[in-house]
Structures are given as structure tokens and as C-alpha cells.
Amino acid sequence: MATRLGRLRRWYAVTIAVLMLAATSACTASVTGAAPAGGEPVRGGELTYLDAEIPVSALIQEQGTWQDRALFWNLTDRLIYRNAQTREFEPWIAESWTVSDDGLRYDFVIRQGVTYSDGTPLDVESVKRNLTRQIYGDKAKGIAKNYAFPDEAEITTDPATRTVTVRLRQPWAPFLGALTGWAAGLVADSVFALPREKQSDYTNLIGSGPFVVESVRYGKAYVLKRREGYAWPPKSSPNQGEAYLDKVTVIPVQEDSVRLGTLRSGQAHLLRYVQPSEEKSLAKDGYRVIARSGVGLANQWPLRQNVWPGNDFRIRKALQIGIDRDQIIKDLYTENWSVASSVLSPGTLGYLDLSKEIAFDPGRANALLDEAGFTGRDADGYRVKDGRRLKLRTYVDVFDNTAKALFQHIQAQFKTLGVQLVLEETDYTSYGPTVNADPAVNFTRTGWPHPDPAHGLWNVYSSKRTDALRLNGADATLDRLLDSTLRAPSAQAEGAALAKAQKYLIENALTIPILNDTQVYVGARSLNGFTLSDGGLPEYQRAWLAQR
Check: CATH 3.40.50.300 for 299-516? Predict the structure, then answer.
């Protein structure tokens, strides 16, 4: 895969202009109506969207790349929708649902008249098959389960009442949240029938969403066309019918300057990933800057306990309170960004404001490092103890285009404390294998939007899952707190359990919250109605292009 991606990136420099010209010509020719910006929506038009990386696979419940999520979000529908403004659950394919007081039974009434793009019905039996695969996967085809779903369930249907009933052996608090997520998109039976390799091909992804895949040139262009007859968006959508746009063409372009130059030249309508330094000038020039801090986990650095000096609480706490987050925002970002105040982002279920516990306190940070025995300084100004320099090592995050400047800023702040932060770099394709194989890494960045915070925290911190702290089960209290968030029988109980888990992570300085994850898109002046989901994913069904 790395070799293939490398060839594709070299290809950009040679052919990107050709792709842009073709996409722009198509757009100009296909606009069928006119309206001033902010006027009545115009039907027609082809939107060209530039993202930084390449979609990997259409295996909907397994892939977590942002580029895949953005495609899934517009090709499939979900049982439940979370309103990005109110953060409340809304009916979607499930027109209503009930949950028993003990959290063990869920009844979903399925909307009538919904079909997949191949014409087959999205009925109770289809929902049952989708839920079954989410919960159990398909071992025969090598398809893993979706770990945001419960471990097991009994699923029954009643076609007469259009009801799907899910019975659990023990509560699973993330269930409703998981049903709103990008990976919970509903797909037709024809997808299940395919072998794994063909299921990963986007041209075989059959959903019920407002767009369908027209064509794919892997790594070059992904063309979505409007689904004719689409009539079942969430009720809060301002567009209750088919998408306004005829087509959306997604083109991966790695270089920030190329994406921005293409937008400014009028050859594209939308991009993601722009440097914060460009946001204000773009807005001043009339471009539409759309940003959202999604529900889920804040941008944070879990400190590995098995790598020195991560097992010393005093050092961990000094690092946690030795970062001036407000200064980082002031120096590097805009009002679209905000400092983290917990391990969860504001607006997320169970969010607890712990800003006082992680507030910048250089005096206390220095005192803690002195207490840990690092009282000496070497010729470079770094703290030493018994001849050993106080040093940490990490890799610059490849999933955030602002990461390098951010990491370097914190590197400079740590140096004022006498702590050396060594920054390594690698590329997008080798980042995961490299950082996981490097035994000297003290932390890597984590924290993204997530449909349910209990599963998000458990997935990152539990020794039964990713074990980002590398505790290997040594902290039974943390594992117990994380498990309790999953097994809460109600949202209220889940929120209370999440508060305890957040406090434990912060009070024991097991992680360093940095910023709230923010997704920033920039649209052309002609782009209207474009919105972002609760997790910052693009929603094309509502968007339209004004005639130039």
C-alpha cells in the first residue's frame, strides 16, 4: 500500500491541473438555475471537493480514515441522527424507538418507503441483517465486528408493526450513540453477499443515502451522483428531498498550497485542511469558512506508563500543567479553535469541565520536577538527574495539518521547564506501524469526534482494547471505571460514570489534554447550505451552488 500511495502522490504534480480543469468545466456546464448567495436553493451543479488523503476502503464498519467516513456519511443513512446544533438524537430511518429502564431492550420502529439505491427495501429484515453484522462481523469473510456495538444480542422483527427489537444480556450504554455514527450506515443485502475484497470497492457500496457512487479512480477521483427519488433525510434537514447538487467529485490532494491555490483559482468549491493563518484572510475575501468542534474526545496525549519517565506521577503532572494552552491558541489558531478543558469536548454527553486541574501553572510544574529529583541542568538547559537528561519522544501527528506547528510550540514550552521533547516525523502511510513499533515513544496524539464518549474513552484507554497508556491491566481502577461507562443502563448513569473516568484520568495525570478537535472547511463564494455533522463530516445533501 505504501508503494502505491507514493506513486499516486507523485502523480498529483503532473495531473492535478487536468483533473481540476475537467471538474470545473463540468461544473460550469451543469448549473441549471441561478440564485444570489443566501437566496433560494438552486438545483444542479457539480461540486469539486479537495481532501488531503485517499479513501482506503468501503468496508464500512472497519475503516476509520476521515476520507472514508466522509464518503460513508453521504452514501448511507443511519437509524438515528444526532443534530449537530442541539446535540440531541432525532429519528431517521428509525422513526421512533424506546429503551427499557434496565437498558436491556431496544425497540425501533422503521420508517416506511425507504429503499436502497438498487431498489431493494430498507425494511425490518434489512435492519436486522445490518445490526447482526455490526455486532458479530462476518468471520467467514474475515470482516470484524464493530466494537462500538454490544458483544452479543438477540434481534427479532415484527413486520406488521415495522419493529426491530434488540435484547441485550447486559446494558451497553454506547448503543444509541453508535447508531448515529458513520460506521453504522445501512447497506443492502447485495453488499453482504460479496467477498471481502469486493466489499472494499466503493463501486459496490449500495446504501440508501442521498448520493450513489458513479465512478472511482483509486487515489485520483471519487464521483458521487445524486440519488433520484431520495425522500427520507432527518426531519431537521432544511432539504427534505433529493440533494440539490447533481454530483460531488472528491479529489485527494496532499499539498496544502495546491488545495488552497485550486480553490482560489475557482477550480474547486470546497476543501478541508487549511492552515489557521489562512482562515481570516479567506473569510475576508468572501470565502466561507465552516468549522465544527465535534462531540467526542479532545485532542490529547496519553502518557505511556511503560516508557521512562511516564511512570512518575510528578513528571506527568508537571507536563500536564506546564502547557500554556491559551498562548497556543493566541499564537497559532483562530476563534474557530478552543483549548481542551477535559478529555472530552464540551457538548459531549458526560463532559466535565476540569480546566482548573490542568490550568497552566509553571511554578508548580517546576516544583514537581525538582521534587522528582531533576534539579540539575546540562549545558543545553535541560534538567538532569544522575547524569540522565529529562527527555520525551514522540512523532508529529499526521492526521492534523496544524500538528507540526502545535508540537513545536509545546516543545518550546517544555524547554522552558527544562524538559526536552524530541519530535520525529514520518509519512501518512507508515505513521501507525512506525509509532506502534517504536519502544521509546512516550505518547502519540489521540482524540477525535466519536459517536459515543463511553466507547471512545474505553477504546483508547482500556487495557482490553488499545491500551494507549501501556498499562497492560496494571490499573484495575481505571479499567473498572471505563467498564462502568459502557454498562450504564441510561444516559444519566453513563454521564455520571463518564465524569468519574474523566476525573481519574486527569487527577492521575495519565493524559495531557491539548485542544478541542476542530474540523475546518473552506468553501467558494458560490457554495451555500453546506453543513457539517455532529462529528464534523460534510453533509452534501443540503448544499447548493449559486450561478456565477
Answer: no
